Structures are given as C-alpha cells and as structure tokens.
C-alpha cells in the first residue's frame, strides 16, 4: 500500500526562485532563509519519495476569474510552467502521475469533495519554486507530482476547516492505494503577508510561530479560524496557510518534527519550513 | 453566511470587487504573454480601451496608482503582472501603497520579521 | 426575502431546439412532446420569475477535460452561447444576475460546497434549449438566469445524494437573500437515455416514471442510488437526473404538482416535464 | 471507493479512458469552431496528426468507426462534434453502434418509449 512518509511546509515566494537563478543564496539577505533547506534536501535524498502531493495556489497563470475552482487537482502525466509576466524563469516540466491521481480524485468526489479535475494545467511559481528549492539542481524529473490548487485569491475562499478536511480525505485515498509508494506531502505558501493596500507589508511573527506550533500539536486550532480572522492575524495573503492545513490533514499517524526554520522577511513575506516525519 | 470583517488598509477582493474589476483584471492577466506586454507598452491607453476599462481604471493604470487600481476592483494577483511590466517588484509596490520610500518599507519588513512594530 | 415559487423539470435535447428553429412542433413526431408545454408557459406568464436558477450540464462547449469542474456556477451578468459544432442555432445571450449569484456562491463555499465560480462562461444547449422551450418567442431577456453546471460526462461524477444536498444549500441561500424576488428552479436534462456503445438507444419508461413519482414524494429514494445504479437503470446519460435532484433539493416547503408530461423518444432520449409549485 | 459496475455495451468514460482518449477528445472538441471543421475536412489525417492521435484513433476517425473511437478513449460528448461534422445525428450514430439500420434503431426507440422491449 502507498504510505505517507512525511509532510513538508515550505514557502513558494517567487523571489526564492529568482535568487536561485542569480546565485544569491549566500548573500546576507537570503542566507538565513536558504540555510534552512540542506537538512530537508538531505532527508529527501535519503528517503526519496515516489510521489509528491503538492498543495499550492495558482496566482493567475492557469486560472483566471472567468472560471475559478475552489479546489482543483491535476491528473496529468506532465505539467508545464510558463511566463508569469514578471520575470521568473521557467523550469523543466514537472512530471505527473495518473493512476494515484485518479484514485484520489475518485475517492474525493465519492466523499463529497467537489473537485475540478485537470488533465492539462500549467503550474505557476506556487508549484515550481518548492520543486526548485528542494531539488536545486532541478533534478526532479523522477519525482511524480500531484498538484492541488486551492483558491486563495478571490472571496469566497474555502474555510480552513474545509481544507483540513480535504487533507484528511487525501490521506485516506493515498493510504488505500494498492501500490507500494512513498508519498511526501508539500504544503506550500504562507506565512503571514499582505501585498495589497495601505496595510501592505503586514507580517506577524507571533501568529506565524503560533501556526507552526499548532500545525504539529493541534491543527484544529488553526482550522477553527475563519478566513476573516486569518486576514486580521496573518495578512490578506496569510490565507495561504490553508495549503498547510490540507497537507496536515492527510497525516493522522505519529508525527515527528525533524527540522524547522522560521525566517522573515523574504520579499514581503514570512517563511516557515518544517519537515514532519509521518509513520503509523 | 458570515461576511468578511473590514480590515483597515485592506481591500477584500470579493464578488462585488471582482465584478467591478473584471475588465481591468482581464487586461492585467493578459500581460502573462510577452506579445501582450509589448502591445501594452506601445500604447497603454489603446490597450486599456481594447479590454473595456472604464475611465477610473484607465487613469489609475496610466498614473501607476496602485491604491486606485485596488479601489477600481483590481486583484493583487493580476496587478502583480502590471507591476512586472513596470519593472517594479513587490517591495516597490508596497512602498507606493504605504507612501513610504522603498528603503523605509524594507526596514519595516525587517522590523516586523523580528516581531517588532 | 427571495422566495422559491416553483421547480420545473424539462428536457434539454438539442433536437427540441432544432425542431423549433424549423417549425416542426406540430409534426406527429414532436407534437406529443410540445403539447406538454403550454400549461407551463402559461404559469410562467402568470407567475413571472425574477430569477431562474438553471441546473444543467455542459456537453463540451465551455468545459473540456483539461479542467472540468464537478460543480460550476455563473455569477456573470450575461451568458453567451456559441456554435456547438453540429448545427444548433445560437440564441440571444442569456441575462445573468450578480447579487444573488454571489450570495449563493458565498453561502455554498461557506457550507463546504467546493464550487467553481464563473464570471464569464458560455452556456450550451443544456441551458439554451430550456430557455427557448419555455419562452418560444425568445422573449426572455428580462429573466435573470443563474446557470449551474454539474459534471455528467466524465467519471468520477458527483453522487446523486451530493446533488440533492447541493440543492438544499441553494434553497437556504436563496431564502436568506434579503430582496423580494420570485425564484423558479429549472432541473434540466434526463431522462433515461444512452448515446454510446452497443447499448445505445437504451430507454426505460419504468425507471423514468418511478423517478417522476419519487422526485415529488421521496427524492431521497433517487438520491440513494449510486451512479452505477443509475447507469444500469437509466442509461449512461441517465445520470442527468442529478440536475433534477439538485433542483428538488432546494424545495423544502409544500409542493403541488400542477402539471406533468412524459414522452419518449425525442431523438434517443426520454423526456419528462413537471411543474411543481412551492410554498411555505 | 466504489468502482463502477461494468454494464454490457457501455464504455464508462472514466480516468483510464480519459487518459487514453485525451488527444482524440481534444481534436473533436476543437470541431466546435467552424474554421477547425473546415481544416479537418480538407485533410482529416493531417488534422489527426496535428493533435497527436495514435494509429488506432486515426484509423477509427477515418473509418467512422464509432465503437472503435469509444474503445480508443473517445467521449460521446466530443464524438458528437465529430458526428456533426459527418452530418450524422444521434440516431444515425446509434444505428452504427448497434449494427441496425436507422429505421430499425428508431423503431426500437419507439418501442422502448412505450415501455416495450
Ligand atoms: Fe503565494
Ligand atoms: Fe444533456
């Protein structure tokens, strides 16, 4: 049977990708951020996943307001990325996976999650930056990725509790799949930030550290927040914590926090990195 | 149904705003494509007209008035493409919106990242 | 407050639109079908709705397999239709509605229905044929339509019980909207039919009449069926009954069946027409 | 998870089939547009190639082999656009699939509509 070996939270800020393109990792601005990653890369090297389920949000590459899904997931064997309009370099296509993907899609819809199911979709920096930062030589083509996009842009957005519940069903679906696969979950995005308005630049270290603690010990405490409360406490784009909740929801076994790093700011955003081992 | 709590300095991008800003956002979304960015820079006003922007939206584009764009229904996701067109990054945009210099804005971010301010 | 004054089931077979375009309503083939409609048109004339919430399925005009929503709803102020590739004439654009639409979308997502929300979408015969058959002079521009598309094509499809539950939340959302509006629900599509395979031409009068009865008296009995059971008893495209269930789910007051007509076949499909008055 | 029950003469269009038929269905979906229908009729084979159809799919298109198209992952929604291209309606398609004449197929529908057969 497929098993979930770990959940990893990571930022997906475009500036990270740009920094890597320009070899800025060792500069004072970026060093405290990139210094968090080697232990996670090492763990991924020692415990190579067959499949990564990657929760992210599209920022206006694949989805526009015309038809915007609350939850979309890919079931394709390849995902291209593309020009996002402001200069992040494209990376080689991400490898997809179809069997487990359809198994999950079927389980989710059978259990009343109303997914938009995508046989072809472009993935943006929300998906590509986490891949680049985990496999900095871009040697990830052997990793099969299942991208899952959650609406974090236009209200109404899914409740945090709904995202945690979505993750729970992902967990059940993965663990009922009858192939021996190691699956790692990525919860990308976050942490506190606000890009728009006179409140731009809002960051709350206090809220972020609370989230990083509760994510392990009591994710329901985060899930009990409303979208409004998250905006107040974490900024307008702080709602990206929903992807962390989805990731966390899938893990219902024993958790062991192997590594953790908090650093702010990168660009306008606080970053949190956690490697959470999962076993039964 | 629980409506969004107003937050100072924040423009919740909800249905009402998204109706208002649809043409504006569609124009900005088009800037994903290099050929559209080129067309835009050749004649910004004509490009706005092509997408049916209203007067306030067109003026805010021409004046790089980010707050005005938010008020006119812009979504920061698509406005980011417009910012890219202007070679501005998110900290430049933050400075414009808060009325700070970029250096002041960056210093504020650092303070906040350390749990101060 | 907005109130639901009726639910109407109707076929949306393209051949109906084609017949109307060619003035074939009085021919022996079509007459028994079209003879069902005058009482419903009269009722709509005497009890004009402000808004029609129209449950249908897209048959490959707006949505393709690349990103296919389980549930999509429009929030636009206008819906165009277009060439579907096999000759049905386009009709004038359908008028939309934005305030109640967003109110419903917000209620649904708040209550864990993961809608794809569309600010721009083309509607196909699933939506246009019901409008044409109810307002045969195409004088419907004063009616504001909220189109709701349910995936009836690619498996996994939403469970019938999920569609009934979707309708329930539509009902609550509509009745909590603080404007005095008369809302009529259209459940379109059905009834038994199968277009593909050696089993093409499957029709079950028995299953259809059972559905028409249960829709009024015990919709849960239909909702308890699985998609597999519906395919077996109603044909591969018989799953369009899901739109009837969504419509029915929204009505929880007193029902009065004012008119009913069953006729088969039109093209390869059985047709059912019901006018169900709704009050509290 | 409850898998679909097999039904004789029925090709459940599920994930497996939809993977298999993606290129075929994308080609048929394109036939919504008049200019694509024209391009298709000028050179069917070249049009199939353009969309990356495999041999079995291309052969089934050229031979109007509806069952073959279903087996190759075709979805009846998009195959209907192909049928339209051929000026065939759903009863013609039904007759082809069941091996009946169109008259026989229509008569069967009438019988079934009356609750017989
Ligand atoms: Fe983001
Ligand atoms: Fe239909």
Name the features.
heterotetramer; A: 280 residues; alpha/beta; Protocatechuate 4,5-dioxygenase, Chain B; eight-stranded mixed sheet; two-stranded antiparallel ribbon; 10 helices; 11 strands; 24% strand; globular; B: 117 residues; mainly alpha; Protocatechuate 4,5-dioxygenase, Chain A; 9 helices; binds fe (iii) ion
Number of strands of chain A: 11
Q: Helix content range of the residues of chain B, please?
A: 55-70%
Under CATH, the topology of chain A is which?
Protocatechuate 4,5-dioxygenase, Chain B
Number of domains of chain A: 1
| Element string of chain B (H = helix, E = strand) | HHHHHHHHH
The value of Rg of chain B in angstroms is 15 Å
Domain module tally of chain B: 2
Percentage of helical residues of chain A? 25-40%
Distance between the first and last residues' Cα of chain A:
13 Å
Put the structure in a nutshell.
The complex is a heterotetramer, with two copies of chain A (280 residues) and two copies of chain B (117 residues). Chain A is an alpha/beta fold and 280 residues long.
Written overview of the protein:
The complex is a heterotetramer, with two copies of chain A (280 residues) and two copies of chain B (117 residues). Chain A is built from ten helices and eleven strands. In chain A, strands 7-4-8-2-9-1-11-10 form an eight-stranded mixed β-sheet, with helices on both faces. Chain A is of the alpha/beta class and 280 residues long. Chain A has one domain (6-83, 90-253): LigB-like (Protocatechuate 4,5-dioxygenase, Chain B), CATH 3.40.830.10. Chain A has helices at residues 14-21, 31-34, 38-46, 99-110, 125-134, 160-175, 205-217, 219-223, 227-234, 241-249; strands at 3-10, 51-56, 67-69, 71-74, 78-79, 94-95, 116-118, 144-150, 182-188, 254-266, 269-279. In chain A, strand 10 (254-266) and strand 11 form a beta hairpin. The mean pLDDT of chain A is 97. Chain A is 34% helix and 24% strand. With 117 residues, chain B is an all-alpha fold. Chain B has two domains: 15-86, Orthogonal Bundle (Protocatechuate 4,5-dioxygenase, Chain A); 87-117. Helix content of chain B is 65%, strand content 0%. Chain B has nine helices and no strands. In chain B, helix 3 (34-42) crosses helix 4 (44-50) and helix 4 packs antiparallel against helix 5 (55-62). The longest helix of chain B is centred in the C-terminal third of the chain and has 12 residues, at 102-113. The chains are: A alpha/beta (280), B mainly alpha (117). Chains in contact: A-B, A-C, A-D, B-C, C-D. At the A-B interface, helix 9 and strand 10 of A face helix 2, helix 6, helix 7, helix 8 and helix 9 of B. The structure holds fe (iii) ion (2 copies). One fe (iii) ion (FE) binds next to loops of chain A.
């Amino acid at each position: 049977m497929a098993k979930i070996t770990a959940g990893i939270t990571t930022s997906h800020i475009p500036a990270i990708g740009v920094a890597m393109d320009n070899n800025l990792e060792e500069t004072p601005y970026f060093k405290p951020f990139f210094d968090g990653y080697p232990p996670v890369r090492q763990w991924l090297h020692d415990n190579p996943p067959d499949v990564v389920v990657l929760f992210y949000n599209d920022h206006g590459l694949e989805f526009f307001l015309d038809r915007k899904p609350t939850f979309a997931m890919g079931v394709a064997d390849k995902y291209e990325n593309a020009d996002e309009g402001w200069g992040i370099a494209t990376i080689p296509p991400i490898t997809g996976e179809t069997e487990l993907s359809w198994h999950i899609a079927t389980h989710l819809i059978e259990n009343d999650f109303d997914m938009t199911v995508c046989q072809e979709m472009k993935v943006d920096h929300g998906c590509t930056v986490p891949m680049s930062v985990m496999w900095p030589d871009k040697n990830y083509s052997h990793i099969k990725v299942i991208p899952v996009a959650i609406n974090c842009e236009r209200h109404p957005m899914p409740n945090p509790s709904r995202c945690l519940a979505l993750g729970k069903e992902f967990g059940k679906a993965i663990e009922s799949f009858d192939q021996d696969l190691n699956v790692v979950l990525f919860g990308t995005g976050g942490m506190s930030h606000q890009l728009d308005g006179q409140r731009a630049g809002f960051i709350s270290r206090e809220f972020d550290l609370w989230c990083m603690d509760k994510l392990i010990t009591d994710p329901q405490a985060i899930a009990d927040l409303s979208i409004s409360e998250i905006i107040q406490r974490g900024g307008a784009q702080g709602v990206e914590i929903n992807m962390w909740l989805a990731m966390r929801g899938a893990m219902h076994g024993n958790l062991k926090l192997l590594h953790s790093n908090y650093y702010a700011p990168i660009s306008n955003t606080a970053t949190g990195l956690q490697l959470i081992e999962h076993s039964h | 149904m629980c409506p969004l709590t107003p937050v100072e300095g924040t423009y919740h991008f909800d249905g009402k705003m998204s109706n208002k800003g649809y043409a504006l956002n569609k124009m900005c979304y088009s800037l994903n494509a290099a050929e559209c960015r080129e067309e835009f820079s050749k004649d910004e006003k004509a490009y706005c007209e092509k997408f049916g922007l209203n007067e306030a939206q067109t003026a805010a584009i021409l004046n790089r008035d980010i707050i005005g764009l938010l008020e006119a229904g812009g979504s920061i996701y698509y406005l980011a493409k417009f910012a890219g067109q202007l070679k501005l990054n998110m900290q430049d945009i933050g400075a414009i919106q808060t009325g700070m210099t970029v250096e002041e804005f960056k210093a504020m971010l650092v303070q906040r990242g350390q749990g101060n301010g």
